[in-house]
């Protein structure tokens, strides 16, 4: 087990934290006070020389592991050749579009390249509005699609809305199947008959002015607390929207490229979204995002109406191509499914011992541990979750700060290259950290 970190933040980190405090806005998400200096594979080293096993992937970004040698080599090679080209075509841009279409379901036959997840959301919103006569979009409570205005409007997380004034008109919101805390007070997907989907009709009848054009959802809600819809929910949603004659946008910004044990999360279900947004793991650390879609939608866009200076730039495209190549060559999708199952089983077993582990959920290498005061009340234990994460750092394990609607969900999202030995070691550290937090260390 890595040695206990005695001083966090260390002296050098304190210097940089003070600099950040002085020169950067506080709008950036809070994480434990340390400063990353370098990282390799599944290990992060901070500026004071402390080492941490990584359960964060830098918030689900570095799917192929930190500074994977082949990734770095391809980025360097492209940087030496050609950097930016805007609308002018380059070979990596065309190659990446082709690759994305080839690895996705057959009917998705176009890929539009942009830079961030929020860009991809904005592009998808504009695309469906251009390709359909309607302009209203249904999103879900708790959804996060980015922090630009359109993305924040289709999403519905208070932290992004509050205090920022009116949202984009035409965004309607409905309950998401958060079965552990069912918003309709039901909670058993085996018997509830998906009342939350029935409720969609009610929401539409009360809020829509008859101009619906799309429904948009994450494949699992990340920021809301790794909330995974129950089996059957997605198929029923897809059928509902087909009956309504509207498009379906699936946000796979954080769930794709092997993260959930499939190349794309949508492969877990029998669904046919018209547009799929991609980001984070696509460039595996380099800024790169995309909208995968059907010609039906994308051909409706006139030339010049959608493009971006850095979208599909050669260095990001080369990085994404290298990342996909690594995922395929090193069987990282399979590794994600296998390592994820080991972690899920171990944490589920731990639930018998610790009632504070209220819910353990996950797919592949993205899991959510919902911390509660006790099993019966399910009262969110936000402070305990923060303490556990803090202890994890002191014991040498880097975790994302707790998230979720109640701030009580700890995410487990290591790079997909994590080995079984590292999985076992990180589980031991987690158990010791949980014990320490419960003991009030
Ligand atoms: N969609 C989802 C599901 C996300 O998790 C994120 C980022 N957390 C975004 C969109 C926005 O991506 P970006 O931060 O790159 O704009």
What is the strand and helix layout of this fold?
Layout: H1 11-23, E1 36-40, E2 43-46, E3 51-54, H2 57-60, H3 69-81, H4 91-103, E4 110-114, H5 117-131, E5 136-140, H6 149-154, H7 158-161, E6 171-174, H8 195-207, E7 212-218, H9 233-244, E8 247-251, E9 275-278, E10 289-293, H10 295-298, H11 314-329, H12 332-353, E11 357-363, E12 366-371, H13 382-394, E13 397-398, E14 409-412, H14 420-438
Parallel strand pairs: 3-13, 5-6, 5-7, 7-8, 8-9
Antiparallel strand pairs: 1-2, 2-3, 4-10, 9-10, 11-12, 12-14
4'-deoxy-4'-aminopyridoxal-5'-phosphate is lined by residues 116-118, 121, 144-146, 218, 222, 251, 253-254, 279.
Task: Report on the architecture of this protein.
- By secondary structure, this protein is α/β, with parallel strands linked by helices.
- It has two domains: 11-64 and 331-439, Alpha-Beta Complex (Aspartate Aminotransferase, domain 1); 71-329, 3-Layer(aba) Sandwich (Aspartate Aminotransferase, domain 2).
- It contains 14 helices and 14 strands.
- The protein has a seven-stranded mixed β-sheet, with helices on both faces. It has a four-stranded mixed β-sheet with strand order 1-2-3-13.
- Helix 3 packs antiparallel against helix 11 (314-329).
- The two termini are 19 Å apart.
- The model has no long low-confidence stretch (mean pLDDT 96).
- 4'-deoxy-4'-aminopyridoxal-5'-phosphate (PMP) binds next to helix 5.
- Residues 116-118, 121, 144-146, 218, 222, 251, 253-254, 279 line the site of 4'-deoxy-4'-aminopyridoxal-5'-phosphate.
């Amino acid at each position: 087990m890595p040695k206990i970190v005695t001083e966090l933040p260390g002296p050098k980190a304190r210097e940089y934290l003070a600099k950040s405090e002085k020169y950067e806005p506080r709008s950036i998400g809070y994480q434990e006070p340390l400063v990353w200096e370098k990282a390799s594979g599944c290990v992060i080293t901070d500026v004071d020389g402390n080492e941490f096993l990584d359960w964060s992937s830098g918030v689900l970004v570095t799917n192929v592991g930190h500074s994977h040698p082949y990734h770095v080599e391809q980025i360097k090679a492209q940087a030496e050749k050609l950097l930016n080209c805007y609308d002018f075509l380059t070979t990596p841009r065309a190659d990446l579009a082709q690759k994305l279409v080839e690895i996705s379901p057959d009917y998705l036959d176009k890929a539009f390249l942009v830079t961030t997840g929020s860009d991809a959301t904005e592009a998808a919103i504009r695309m469906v509005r251009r390709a359909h006569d309607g302009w209203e979009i249904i999103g879900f409570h708790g959804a996060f699609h980015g922090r630009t205005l359109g993305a924040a409007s289709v999403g519905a997380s208070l932290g992004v809305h509050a205090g920022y004034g009116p949202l984009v008109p035409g965004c309607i919101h409905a309950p998401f199947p958060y079965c552990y805390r069912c918003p309709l007070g039901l909670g058993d997907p085996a018997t509830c008959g998906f009342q939350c989907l029935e409720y969609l009709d009610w929401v539409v009848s009360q809020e829509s002015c008859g101009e619906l054009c799309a429904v948009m959802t994450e494949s699992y809600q990340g920021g809301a607390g790794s909330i995974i819809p129950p089996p059957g929910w997605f198929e029923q949603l897809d059928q509902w929207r087909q009956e309504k004659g509207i498009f379906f946008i699936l946000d796979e910004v954080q769930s794709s490229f092997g993260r959930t044990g499939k190349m794309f999360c949508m492969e877990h279900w029998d669904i046919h979204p018209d547009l799929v947004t991609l980001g984070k793991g696509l460039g595996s650390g380099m800024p790169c995002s995309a909208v995968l879609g059907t010609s039906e939608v994308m051909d409706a866009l006139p030339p010049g109406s959608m493009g971006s200076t850095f979208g599909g730039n050669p260095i990001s495209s080369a990085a994404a191509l290298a990342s996909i190549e690594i995922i395929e060559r090193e069987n990282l999708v399979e590794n994600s499914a296998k390592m994820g199952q080991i972690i899920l089983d171990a944490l589920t077993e731990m639930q018998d011992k610790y009632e504070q582990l209220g819910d353990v959920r996950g797919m592949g290498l993205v899991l959510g541990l919902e911390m509660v005061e006790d099993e019966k009340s399910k009262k969110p234990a936000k402070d305990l979750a923060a303490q556990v994460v803090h202890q994890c750092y002191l014991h040498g394990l880097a975790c994302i700060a707790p998230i979720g609607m109640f701030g009580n969900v700890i995410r487990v999202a290591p790079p997909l290259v994590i080995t079984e030995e590292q999985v076992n070691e990180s589980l031991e550290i987690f158990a010791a950290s949980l014990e320490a937090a419960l003991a009030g260390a």
